[in-house]
Amino acid sequence: QQGQRLITSFFSKP
Amino acid sequence: MFEARLLQGSLLKKVMEALKELLNEAAWDCSDAGIQLQAMDNSHVSLVSLNLRAEGFDKYRCDRNLSMGMNLGSMSKILKCASNEDIITIKAQDNADTVTFVFESPDQDKVSDYEMKLMNLDQEHLGIPETDYACTIRLPSSEFARICRDLSQFGESMVISCTKEGVRFSATGDIGTGNIKLAQSAKVDKEEEAVVIEMQEPVSLTFACRYLNSFTKATSLSKSVQLSMSPEVPLVVEYKIEDIGHVRYYLAPKIED
User: Fold this and answer.
1) Which chain A positions have a beta carbon within 8 Å of B255's beta carbon?
2) For the segment B31-48, what is each residue's pLDDT rounded down to a tens digit?
3) B233 CB near a chain A CB, below 8 Å?
């Protein structure tokens, strides 16, 4: 979707 | 071995309903503290975090930490075989490749057991930073479900704006625009009917309605729901699960156009 950010850009992979 | 017995089996049935629209599969991580689950939806736009504390179970035994990968569609089919009044037990041998669900009727005259194959899921868990949210809004869960359902007719995005006056939900699209404003409840007689807003600073963020509507599948778990917001961080939608735990949904905001 246009303009939708991903949760992975906020929460770090370990 | 692992064994967890829940007297109020209906809670697990409701948890299933709360997960299965968003997730196809997930790992149920069991330790002596309880059961935890964390998984992202397929599009990696939202994350679900479930916690069921060991103390909330009538009987709980976890000899060794265990991670059980489950297909939630299959698990949902099995849990549909349980009645709302049933006692539900989840059991698994250590490093087993199957899990067994036992449903006992209240007067023990009917006992069912269903064995399901486990999956190998290499689910790495994401680190969720502790956040001191700018705004938290507690409102009746049925009210929130109604708002999401009504406004998603107007557009695929919803703007949630929180100020000291109250919280406003808005959506706009081809047919027009909808705005719903909720004021902070004056008198808080019935706790779960109240709208309670804690605001450090005003926040306004845009979210995709389809995820919010998926989150509201958890409405039957709790009479109230809590929304937590801060500028430019994911929204948190939290439903308590009686005195045993909670399910938390995290949703990444959309870039304001």
Assistant:
1) 3-5
2) 999 999 999 999 999 999
3) yes
